[in-house]
What does this fold into?
Amino acid sequence: MIYVANMAKQHEATEAVFALIDCNSFYASCEKLFRPDLRHRPVVVLSNNDGCVVARSEEAKALGIPMAVPFFKIKPLIKRHRVSFFSSNYALYADISKRVMSTLSKLAPDIEIYSIDEAFLELSRLSSLHTMEDFNHYGHLIRRQVHQWIGIQIGVGIAPTKTLAKLANHASKKYPASKGVVVLLESQRRENLLKITPVEDIWGVGRRLSQKLKQLGIKTAWDLSRLEPEHARQQFSVVLERTIRELNGESCLELDSIQSKKQIISSRTFGRHITTLREMEQAISEYTVLAATKLRQQNQQAKHVSVFIQTHRFNAADKYYYNSASGDLLLPSNDTRELNALALRLLKTIWRSDYRYNKAGVMLSDFYDAQLYQTQLFDDEVQNTRGRYLMQTIDRLNLQQPGSIRFASQGLSQDTQWTMQRRYLSPAYTTNWKAIPCVR
It folds into this structure.
């Protein structure tokens, strides 16, 4: 192994200070938010079609319920320990996430939303923070604010690099004495944590790479940090080189600003197989409507539409079939009617009878800023304006009462038999007026 010099001993050696905020057991915490009776009860959240466990509360983890275990395998344990279980409520989780991120944006000038339950903050521009004690105090302030305003518990990891902030956050949850905040701005504290952190726990080091590193005697984060960066680049990759530099306090990964997505995919596994074109048209229309709504929320227009359908890949009793088709609109649009018409035309080019389909999806891409709206020379501008107002009205009504306005091609009911099974779905407390609890 090739070693490098000791880590810089002073935080002043680097200007950047990152905080990684991670919501604790996010999906399960959202389910508990409006159910005080579940405060100390084990809770699990199930995947699409209620297939397997995708989230667990701390109480559920303590019972030994593993991640991704099929739901039917733990039913005896659930009954024995009175475990509460829920279908994935994506509308609820997305809304609570938005509220958490909005709160964080008020506490730091720069934020990168990393996932639905994680965000990086850059704290170096906060003039009131100088010492490690200042940053530790601010970390606890962030925790209190998010819990007070939203009701969600979070972990806070603060460090001079994103990779170290990830490790600090992991430690904030693993070690109760930290009270949810770990600050790694002193070299000795970093060294102590790196020496007890397995190499596979490092952000960006996967299982396969960790096995190769262990064969070289690199078992901990500290071992990896002593590897010469240039040697790591030659033997492995530039990604591992950056990781080593970050472990040594050298910031290589900047904060990414919030950017519009380059594509939107709306796809689901069906609750039961689809065998008729009419039902598949309803499914494709449903997914196109969802994708178009997201497109307008991002203030974007799309020109390229793709559609795919497939049967079950691993079911020997069914013939396997997968196909996709793509096409372009003449001009970019976020009008559901135009996008849906193209999606349905594409579907008919790939539809094959005598198959039992279990999944389909729609993808929108080739985005344009909706503010830069372009029309053809002989387009009817009045008609285009009416179309935009129509979409805005539909979005507003569906926001007030989800599913109140539907397109004919979607079918008359949201509760069709092929839709994703969510038998244990909790109410949409924050996005549906009818789901708000009543106090009597």
The CA atoms of residues 108 and 121 lie 6 Å apart. The chain has two domains: 1-259, 263-410. The chain has a mean pLDDT of 87. The first strand starts at residue 18 and ends at 23.
